[in-house]
Amino acid sequence: MNKLAVTMYIVHTLRDTHHILTVIYKQQMKIKLILTILLSLITILGKAQSRYNIIYEKQLGQNFAGENINAGFHLLDYADSLFIPKKIIKTENNFAKVINPIFRFSKLFLSNYLITDYAMTMNHERFGHGYRMLEAGGSIDKIVYNMPPPFTNEFSYINATYPENFTIQQELMYRLGGSETNLVLTDVMRKNILLDERFNYNFGLAYLYGSNDMPGYTAFVTNPAADPIQYRQNINQLYGAELLTREKMRTYSFIALLTDPINFYAFKSVFYDYIVKGRHSSRIGMIKLSNRLKYLPRFRFEYTPYGPELVYQNYFKLNSKLLLFSFSHSDPDLPNSWRVLANIWNIKLSNQISLNLSGQIWDQPNIEFYQNDKLIAFEGFGGQFISTVNYDISKDKNLYGFTLQVGYKSTGYAIGEQLNKGLIIRGGLTFKLGNKSL
After folding, report:
1. Residue-number span of the structural domain to which 92 is assigned
2. Is the overall model pTM greater than 0.85, yes or no?
3. Which residue, among 323, 284, 123, has the nearest Cα to 201 in the 3D structure?
């Protein structure tokens, strides 16, 4: 009987193993089929079209702010191209070569610098820290804006009332929220820049502020009350040991600052192309892999409620089509986490309808937070998928139409989104004035 039982056990085990392998094989074939269809759609039907969105969402969160502020910069950029001259002395001579750059620098300093600082700082405070506090059930008491140097030497700040129930990871979310929302904003900006392969100078200061908000703040600010220092202290408190040091975070910050090629183009577009040469926009370069394929890598880190994630982003341009694939993982001294993300822009379904697809999956360590005074705990696998439908009414001199974004995320952290699971619904107007690079 014992031998028979062992034999039957082996038979059942082999049968179950065969079944599991069969299921895995079928799933792999399905994934391959989906990828084949998707890549076919990208290759045949995709067509790049930068666009700007004026959208609404119920929670008035970070994606709401990122899209609308980008639309505001586009309106400013378009008005600038129509009404503000690049030269006040039209004759080309040595005097003009001095006076015109001085005029452009003065215009940049007294308008672009101040407008950009206000927009990006208020995004940092209201839609970063403020949004994460409201999400946790707290409230915003006041936001104080202080002008940038040399007008003042004071930081802007927000005062908030904490809810009665508040976990240390919700404190981490509050601390990271300011820089997080500017990453969301510059992700939208970078997408449009790469679709056009041009950088309009009116976006330059905003990109340098937003994309470098997190690494710059971490690398250079030493005030004990600063968000990166408070974040690092909270992480070490969460895990009961000094796993995250200032030296380590400064190293990550300097790598992020130096390995974003768009930083170079942003700086060049403002201080060389515009101020020196008087150009409204300039071309950007990507690594040419073939006659049809271009590539642009970049590194950054993102603060999360369980520690910083190191992010490796890879942008591909196939003819005029743009794709993003990224992989991220936790610091080796912190609990393991990873994330895989893919974005595809402008899959054409018809002459008027196009799709954007965005998906990510992750494995995260424990996250605890209160929602309506109920403690929610999550760890493990999760994901998010968002589909955007654009319906274009006109594509002549100006592009305009409607956009609707629908998706779902599971419980867990995803940049710019709520912690809890739920539907994602946003919608509004989509447009591009001029519909060509200026």
Report:
1. 46-432
2. yes
3. 284
